[in-house]
Structures are given as C-alpha cells and as structure tokens.
Amino acid sequence: MSDPRLTPANARVADAALRDQIAAPRYTEGAARRVSAPVADLLHAPRGRRLRQLLAGAPVTWYETHEEWAFVRAEDGYVGYLPEDALTDDVVPTHWITARATHVYSAADLKSAERATLSHLSRVRVLTQAAGWAETTVGHVPARHIRPLPMAEPDPVAIAQMYIAAPYLWGGNSVFGIDCSGLVQACCRACGIDCPGDSDMQQAALGRPLPESARLRRGDLLFWRGHVAWVLDASHILHANAYHMAVSIEPLQAALARIAAEGGGEVTARKRLSSRQDTCWG
C-alpha cells in the first residue's frame, strides 16, 4: 500500500504518473510554484492538522486549488494543502538564509520597516547587492545573512547547534518552532543531503546501520519509535524534544533512561551518514 504522506492524489485530482495505479477524475503533471509565506503549514486536509512546514522559497508541485486551498507536493515528496495565498509563481531563488533568522526590510536601511522575518534555510532571489545589503524580490536583507545556492555546509551537527533553544513544535521545520525530524531534515538540507520529513522515513533512508559494538561519534543518528536525535559526541545527544519543549543537549545515558521510562522504548536504530549523501538541495 502506498504511503498517503507521499501519494499525490485526492478525490479530485492525481499526479499523471499515478494514472495506472489510482482512479481519479482528473490527472495532471502539476505546475512549479514557490512558497511565498515566511513559514507555511502543510496540512493533512484544508484546515486540518499540520503535517510539516515549508519555508519561503521552497519549491512545490501544484496540482489544484479548491476553495482557496492548494493541493501540492513538497520537494521531499510530502503532499498536503497550503492556503493559495502562501504560493507564488516559480521565481527561482539564487541564495539561502544562513543566519538563524533574518529580517526582510523595506529598504537597504536597518531603520526601515520590516516586511517579514525569515528562518534559516529560507531561499530568496537576489537582484542586486551593495553596501552590505542584498535586494531580493521580497525586500532587502543583510548580505552577511545569505549565501549563494546550493546548500553545502560540511557539518550537520554544527547546524543543529544553531537551533539550540528553538521551541519544540510538532511538525515544525523552522527556528520559530521545530520537532525532532524537522531538525534532522534541516541539518541534512543545509549540508546538501537529501532527507525525508519524518523519523520513520529517515531511519529507512539515511546512512548505514551501526552495530551495537560501534562507538558513537559526532553526526551519528539515534532512532526510537517516533523520535530521532543527533549524536553530539560519545556521551551527549542533541535533539528537538517535547520533554524540554526545545532543541536541547542531553547526556546520552540520562536521555536513554528518561525516554525508556516515559514509554518511548529502546533505540531502534543507530545510523551513520556518509560524508556527502545523495544530492544538493537547490
């Protein structure tokens, strides 16, 4: 049975690639669009629960708009619904936000009005740069807060450390709120590593299994049923967690005992990423 999280079909429309697999009133290859909102909740259904979040500049495949809700597929394959006004035409970005967060200003002046605040990993199209400012299609941002695409940071754990104290948010993918799998995806994305959106998918797709005898090292991943954490070093993990309601560092042994006591069970997988996995995110 296909995973509904990754199946681009609803009661009215389906991706043309599913023509021989799913019955639908209409099939379409979809159209390229981009997220225009600083952060947009990708919903299970119109006005439904959040599945994940998409950041400004993220590409989507748009299939239809019905009663002001757009049915889309995100770049990681997740499908769901966004408000139609959270999307714009496919204006291909040139740069990504490398700061934890940045303001978008109405002019190249730090005293000008702010138009929006963008999270780390948002993407923008730069038109010009001068005097420490970058003019983008959405406004002006500090030039020191951006870098040309593609994303290709060397150390996902260093990225995870940028998120320390970010509040926990189930299904969150930004510095304004993030969950365990969102943090793993953000760190992989910044390093040019293809990464799915949920921890079960990540356990299946990322890295190679480690035997119990292998010594853990920085950048390894530990998985539980419904949870994932980065290994900071041999005795600490770094993860977004509901216990602290934030991204935090915990002693490994204390975290193992706490998670088991809370009903989270034992570690289900220990995985190690290759130095450069898969392809870069654009």
Structure explained in plain terms:
With 282 residues, the chain is mainly β. The chain is built from four helices and 25 strands. The strands form eight sheets. It has a six-stranded antiparallel beta sheet with strand order 20-25-21-22-23-24. A five-stranded antiparallel beta sheet has the order 8-7-6-3-9, with no helix packed on it. Strands 13-10-17 form a three-stranded antiparallel beta sheet, with no helix packed on it. A hairpin with a 4-residue loop joins strand 23 (236-241) and strand 24 (246-251). The radius of gyration is 20 Å and the shape is globular.
SSE diagram, text form:
Layout lengths: L13 E2 L11 E2 L2 E5 L3 E5 L6 E6 L3 E8 L2 E6 L4 E5 L3 E3 L5 E3 L3 E5 L8 E6 L3 E2 L1 E5 L2 E4 L2 E4 L3 E3 L7 H7 L10 E2 L2 E2 L1 H11 L8 H7 L2 E2 L11 E4 L2 E7 L2 E6 L4 E6 H10 L7 E4 L10
Parallel strand pairs: 1-2
Antiparallel strand pairs: 3-6, 3-9, 4-5, 6-7, 7-8, 10-13, 10-17, 11-12, 14-15, 15-16, 18-19, 20-25, 21-22, 21-25, 22-23, 23-24
Helix pairs in contact: 1-2
